């Protein structure tokens, strides 16, 4: 496997993970403090890296172009297929609709700033979607090339932001303790969703031709990069703005104003804005690639000629329609994204691996072949599945008003 493909795949995983939701991490962590948020991030990263490796293990028993739809059907039957399909479509369509709505608005602002022309938000949203759809439809190779450029620019913006903030960190702020135990529990879904990249795994498996050694490296390094960046980001934001300031106004705009005033840098808001643009764009590309591959696999027998164009229409038209005409419907659905992600990234991989290992012998497995298995055995699978159920329960309790809502 070429090093270039492995490097590009690693950046796709990292770019999908480091989305605009990263900007919400300091707001979600305001009431629990830096040290507690650090423990949550480490624990949830380990969980998501573990289940990503479970997906690599599962893909050994299927063709390299198989998606979660195919895996679930082969291992769990029709019920598993429908659960996987619903989780993927709910999560990806909701995310794509939010990214199109947010990205279209930001694209409109950039066009106005650069040209001075006032263009309707509907037109810029349409253009923004067409550009991303074109890159995704061409294939994972084009996504790889574009994502490398965007990820590089995003890192530059991130380094600039950190360099402005780091000298102003106050150690006393970083030592703040959780204000109440309920806030720790309520922060878990927000931190959990900030490590979500599993929908892109089938596309990466296909791109790397199912090479297990390369895939293991991509999953571990690609998910570890966001963790490292998150730790730095949390340390400088929570170390610059006091816990009281963050809790008084938990909006992104207020956070940017507080950061700019503290470091006395008026350009900071602009740089963070550029970073947010790039974070949203790389996440949108990664998520839409995963949805594109999933829809192509699900509808393979029904598409006929012009498969990729038809798949692109099925992938992008529904979220574009909602983003243009009823954005609040999908934005509200994002509150439940943690539930769909828990099903997609934790419950399905653990259940499928459990069944493959302990209740059936895959026909594609040659008894003399060496098959990769993730360490941890039955206990690790049960523990991961239990945590997934807990995350779902927490999100339901937040939605029902039994736990405080963050942000």
Automatic annotation (TrEMBL):
Gene Ontology biological process terms from the UniProt entry: amino acid transmembrane transport
Entry's transmembrane regions: 12-32, 38-61, 82-102, 122-142, 149-167, 179-197, 218-241, 268-291, 311-327, 333-354, 375-398
Main location: membrane
Gene3D superfamilies: Amino acid/polyamine transporter I (1.20.1740.10)
GO molecular function terms listed in the Swiss-Prot or TrEMBL record: aromatic amino acid transmembrane transporter activity
GO cellular component: plasma membrane
Domain of life: Bacteria
Cellular localization per UniProt: Cell inner membrane
Family, similarity comment: Belongs to the amino acid/polyamine transporter 2 family. Mtr/TnaB/TyrP permease subfamily.
Function: Involved in transporting aromatic amino acids across the cytoplasmic membrane.
Alphabetized NCBIfam families for the sequence: araaP
Name of the protein in question: Aromatic amino acid permease
Organism, as annotated: Vibrio fortis
């Amino acid at each position: 496997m070429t090093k270039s493909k492995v490097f590009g795949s690693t950046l796709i995983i990292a770019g999908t993970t480091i989305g605009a939701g990263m900007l919400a991490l300091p707001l979600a962590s305001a009431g629990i403090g830096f040290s507690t948020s650090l423990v949550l991030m480490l624990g949830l990263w380990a969980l998501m890296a573990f289940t990503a490796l479970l997906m690599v293990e599962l893909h050994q028993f299927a063709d390299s172009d198989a998606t979660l739809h195919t895996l679930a059907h082969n291992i769990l039957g029709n019920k598993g297929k429908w659960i996987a399909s619903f989780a993927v479509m709910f999560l990806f369509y909701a995310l794509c609709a939010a990214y199109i709505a947010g990205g279209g608005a930001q694209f409109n602002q950039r066009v106005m700033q650069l040209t001075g022309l006032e263009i309707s938000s509907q037109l810029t949203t349409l253009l923004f979607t067409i550009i991303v759809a074109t890159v995704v439809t061409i294939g994972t190779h084009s996504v790889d090339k574009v994502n490398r450029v965007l990820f590089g620019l995003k890192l530059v913006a991130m380094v600039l932001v950190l360099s402005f903030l780091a000298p102003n960190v106050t150690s006393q702020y970083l030592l703040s303790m959780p204000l109440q135990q309920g806030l720790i529990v309520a922060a878990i879904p927000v931190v959990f969703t900030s490590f979500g990249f599993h929908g892109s795994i089938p596309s990466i498996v296909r791109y790397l031709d199912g090479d297990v050694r390369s895939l293991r490296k991509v999953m571990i390094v690609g998910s570890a990069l966001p963790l490292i960046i998150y730790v730095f980001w949390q340390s400088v934001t929570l170390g610059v703005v006091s816990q009281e300031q963050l809790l008084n106004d938990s909006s992104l705009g207020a956070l940017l104003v507080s950061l700019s005033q503290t470091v006395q840098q008026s350009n900071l808001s602009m740089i963070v804005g550029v970073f947010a643009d790039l974070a949203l764009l790389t996440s949108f590309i990664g998520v839409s690639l995963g949805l594109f591959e999933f829809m192509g696999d699900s509808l393979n027998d029904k598409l006929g000629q012009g498969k990729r164009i038809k798949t692109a229409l099925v992938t992008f038209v529904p979220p574009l329609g909602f983003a243009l005409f009823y954005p609040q419907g999908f934005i509200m659905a994002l509150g439940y994204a943690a539930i769909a992600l828990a099903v997609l990234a934790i419950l399905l991989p653990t259940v499928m691996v459990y069944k493959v290992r302990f209740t059936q012998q895959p026909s594609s497995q040659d008894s003399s072949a060496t098959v990769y298995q993730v360490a941890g055995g039955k206990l690790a699978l049960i523990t991961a599945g239990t945590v997934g159920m807990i995350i779902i329960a927490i999100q339901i309790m937040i939605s029902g008003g039994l736990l405080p809502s963050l942000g």
